[in-house]
Specification:
Blueprint (H helix, E strand, L loop, with lengths): L4 H7 L4 H35 L3 H29 L1 H20 L4 H29 L5 H29 L3 H21 L4 H7 L4 H11 L29 H31 L4 H25 L5 H19 L4 H10 L6 H30 L2 H19 L1 H11 L4 H19 L11
Helix pairs in contact: 2-3, 2-5, 2-6, 2-7, 3-4, 3-5, 3-15, 4-5, 4-7, 5-6, 5-15, 6-11, 6-14, 10-11, 10-14, 10-15, 10-16, 10-17, 11-14, 12-14, 12-17
Length: 450
Amino acid sequence: MGRDPQAILDAEPMSRAQWATVAVMVGLNALDGFDVLSISFASPGIAKAWGIDRAALGLVLSMELIGMALGSLTLGGVADRVGRRATILMCLVVMAAGMTGAATAANVEILSGWRLLTGLGIGGMLAATNAAVAEAANARHRSLCVVLMAAGYPVGTIVGGSIAAVLLGHYGWQSVFAFGAIATALFIPLVLLAAPESISFLMHRRPKNALERINRLLARMGHAPAETLPDVATAQRSVPVAALFSSAHARTTIVLTAAYLAHIMTFYFILKWIPKIVVDMGYAPSAAAGVLVAASAGGATGSLLLGLLTARVRLLALTVVAMVASVALVTLFGRGGSDLASLSNMLLGIEISKLASLSMVAAAAGFATNAGVVGLYALLARGFPTGLRATATGFVIGVGRGGSALAPALAGLLFAAGYSLSLVAILMSLGSAVAAIALLALRNRPVEAH
């Protein structure tokens, strides 16, 4: 019996080619982060140019998340049938078309349609990239690579927000989407050059000349060739979502879906409402943007730190701790930074402005909420076999992103009903609490291993 290609990948050190694939996937996830902030930065110009109210603008903001949900649910299964690489390329074409269309939209209805299309591409790409990066890594660095990929999101919000601010200082709101279309299109040759099809996928699907294709990829990575492929009990040509609810996978599917849905509600409350909350405190929009960038920087740091800790601490425990910290820090943010300013003055004798304390708390909240999200991505990659990985990721992200579309609206309704910021923050932080409790059901399951 020849050596198993998957065993070769798992045991051998990561090559430059494998790290290049991971880097491309990090960049692709950063596109998601850029896209979220691009509409936030463009929305004031859109509202002013077309004279639309907040209700109509809210429709545009929701379309992106609805599109992501649909894309994750429908295209995750496609990635398990036709391949991770082919799905990513298809989604990049869809995203580039959607962003180009958004830059040329003449009214809110047309813009909403293009944002829905863009979200559809992003949702499908997220499911495929999570599977692709897990399958490009060896056993030792798999969790780290998935976490690095997820860390691309807050990095994209930082870079995207900075670029959008510069563009809007010289051009109209359309320039943000035009830049997004160009950046998306540039990733197509990068994927073609540096992100080959997953060896795990080729082993599972067994296309024509699978062994030859796998050995070419192993040679490209600097690994020894495989002599033969292991026997496969079943070679499914379709991957129904129902397979996620089989006796072997039902608990993992239900728990991770519930945890992602609950936690992402808290995550999007922070991401979408920070600018409005800070402006309502009397600060300028530029100051509000600075607080949002601080939250994104904290998110990037949290993602990277969680990735480094996965080599020493159990992934499930890390993720639960991140959820608990998210509850505490989102609640603290609801205090408007006054508690932190008072505490620092009392204990350290250092005068910290309310805005500075807001930025510090936002960064800490971003740290915890992003760490929780990337921990869930890593649990998804670890909790399902190759044949179900993209389908499972697509299902969980689809349900979660669909539910997350309610988070900004729910917070808005609570504010409109007269609830204070501190109480709304407490209520919205409960999503992370529910997620932490749900994850405890995965104790003693395979996802808990190092």
